[in-house]
Amino acid sequence: MADNLIEMDVVTANGSEIVVSESSNPDLYWGMRGAGQNFGIITKFRYRIFDYPNGQDIFHATYHFTEDKLEILFEHLNRLLDNGTLPRDVNAYAVLRLKPLISTRPVFVYHFYYFGTSEQALPYTQLILDLGPISISNASFPYKHVSHRSFQASVGDPTCAAGISTKTRFPVGLKTYNVSTNRKIYNLFVDMITTTPALATSFVQFEAFPMQAVKAVDPASTAYPHREDNILVAFSTQYILSAETVAAANKYGRLARQLFVEGAHPLRFNAYSNYANGDETLEQLYGYEPWRLEKLKMLKRKWDPERRFRFFNPIMDY
Asked: Residue of 188, 219, 241, 307 with fewest CB within 10 Å of its CB?
């Protein structure tokens, strides 16, 4: 999303309001697109937007898969994603979670989206049906309702309400799914919710999107560092706050993160900063290239020397 920011009005650490764009404060324009929480508060912005593909509506299908389908499900997803070349009209997103009305064991909820009609989506949906889901639902609706209709995650929905529960994520960027690793993650998730029932509403996210436009951008042109990743996974713990649940959430989240990293090819830990847990290194959050980190530190010294913006994944060691 940061790639489509054209111009921003930003309040900096000293209280000044400045315009940030390619031609105005271009150094900060680079930094705000990928590490903006370190430099200022955006009060207004101009954003590049696009027409809906294939009209206004999106087709959404939800499939539930039991654990015996794990291997064939992720082999299917690897073929579909094809090393970051998922077609632009398609999105494939899976979640591992408890669904008591469907199964006593955690299931994989596979969300499939197509920018078009159900008939146009049939070459893809038939492949999913052939995998043998235990339940199916589908609907078409305007794109702007995707968050609400798919995940109850729009403004006013319980997912976004304050004070209901605490969520902590442990994200890892991947190029492809390691199917054996995902089996280990499933077993770890079962162990977690069995030994700590207070974490039973937790879930594991397996996110993938068409990446062609992301990869077409010069990696050096913004502060966002992880353009080589095709997949975002996150072990996401959700709970009512207590010392016991915090300790268990951190224990299992870090174990899951280690499993994902150890199964990655190549083996490297990239963390998406918007999901980050807070214990990641600067390299894991903002990239391993020395020049990139030094540029970020230089911007921090220039625009926030007193480190006023230090709440969320701060650049601190300079």
From this structure: 241
